[in-house]
Write a structure and sequence with these properties.
It is a single chain. Helices cover 0% and strands 33% of the residues. A hairpin with a 2-residue loop joins strand 5 and strand 6. The N terminus is likely disordered. The protein has one domain: Immunoglobulin-like (Sandwich). The radius of gyration is 18 Å and the shape is globular. It has 184 residues and is mostly beta strands.
């Protein structure tokens, strides 16, 4: 009888960065160097956050609010204030706290004119110049991060209503602040 022997190789790690990397390192804007949703031993973030919100595809009628999603490049946050309806535009602020240090500096989108983002270890504080066109930033957390907490404020300085916080392709927030957990 012949025996079948399978030899496997297990690759561990979290991408190009280690858990001890900090937000002071630079990355290229097009592809932050970070652990994708499938390569962390600690698991993926919940599918709720997967993929860009489908409402962003409606270029002429993007609703007002926040748009938060995760993909192989990391996390993405976008905001609009007037939703293409001629409503108020203004500054939308917030804070994001990861359970471990960030693995890349946030990168403003579409460019540096979108607002400001500051980081300190595992905390991001931002102020976005929101209008009808989505503006925001991208950032990444390493495998050591088991959760990311988002606190998002409206142009009026109060917590953004949950019905205007779009998560992943098709979900909405049920509370603000909210916490994204790895589904490890």
């Amino acid at each position: 009888m012949a025996a079948l022997i399978l030899v496997g190789v297990v690759l561990s790690g979290c991408g190009a960065k280690s858990a001890s990397d900090t937000a002071t390192e630079s990355t290229t804007p097009s592809a932050p160097s970070a652990a994708g949703p499938t390569d962390c031993p600690s698991g993926r973030f919940a599918i709720t956050y997967g993929g860009a919100p489908s409402v962003l595809e409606k270029k002429e009628s993007v609703p007002a609010g926040y748009f938060v999603w995760n993909d192989v490049y990391g996390w993405h946050v976008r905001a609009t204030a007037s939703g293409g309806t001629g409503g108020p535009s203004g500054t939308m602020d917030g804070t994001i706290i990861s359970s471990a240090n960030l693995s890349s500096k946030p990168v403003l989108k579409p460019d540096d004119g979108a607002g400001s983002v500051t980081t300190a270890d595992n905390k991001i504080t931002f102020s976005l110049k929101a209008g009808a066109t989505p503006v925001g930033f991208d950032f990444a957390v390493g495998c050591a991060s088991s959760s990311v907490r988002f606190e998002l404020m409206s142009v009026y300085g109060a917590a953004q209503p949950v019905d205007a916080i779009y998560l992943g392709r098709t979900s909405k927030a049920i509370e603000n602040p909210f916490v994204a957990q790895r589904a490890g």
